[in-house]
Specification:
Elements (H helix, E strand, L loop, with lengths): L2 E5 L4 H17 L9 E5 L2 E6 L2 H17 L7 E8 L5 E7 L5 H13 L4 E6 L2 E6 L2 H14 L6 E6 L1
Antiparallel strand pairs: 1-7, 1-8, 2-3, 3-5, 4-5, 6-7
Length: about 160
């Protein structure tokens, strides 16, 4: 029975490269001279440091630009609130979403079932598996999910016949 998986993965190597390029640009830019602006990574949590809110916004813009150039979908970045640190400096935590959360996976299953296409969808951990009798039905299901889910970067892979 043909099937495929719907996942939401971030290329960690490209994310690391984007962070390295961001830090390198911050070090070379004149408007950041003498500033303590930087981006640090701890697994899937990014922490942006800057001297004030304006520079934090600039660091965020640089990071998003570098992520876009390295094909890291910025929809997978979840910025948290800005925190004040000692000395008037600020920091912001950005969580990187990896995998599909359970409630979002259930809504994807509901979208597939409501489409009346002859396929079955089920939650498999952090992925959604869709299976059906015909390839054309699976391709229709992909089109329906792509159209309905816009707030999360989705990949459609592991296609089996």
């Amino acid at each position: 029975m043909p099937s495929f998986d719907i996942t939401s993965e971030v290329n960690k190597v490209e994310l690391k490269n984007a962070i390295d390029q961001t830090n390198k640009e911050i070090q070379t830019r004149f408007d950041f001279k003498g500033s303590d602006a930087r981006v640090e990574q701890a697994e899937l949590d990014l922490t942006l440091f800057a001297d004030d809110d304006f520079k934090l916004k600039q660091v965020t813009d640089i990071l998003l630009g570098k992520c876009a150039k390295r094909s890291v979908d910025v929809r997978s970045l979840d910025p948290q609130t800005v925190e004040k640190v000692s000395g008037g400096k600020v920091k912001q935590l950005i969580r990187v979403r990896n995998g599909i959360e359970t409630d979002k996976a259930k809504s994807i299953v509901r979208i597939v079932k409501d489409s009346k296409i002859k396929v079955q969808a089920s939650v498999q951990g952090e992925a959604v598996r869709v299976s059906g009798a015909k390839r054309d039905d699976l391709q229709s299901a992909i089109a329906v999910v792509k159209k309905a889910v816009a707030d999360l970067p989705l990949q459609f892979g592991n296609f089996r016949d």
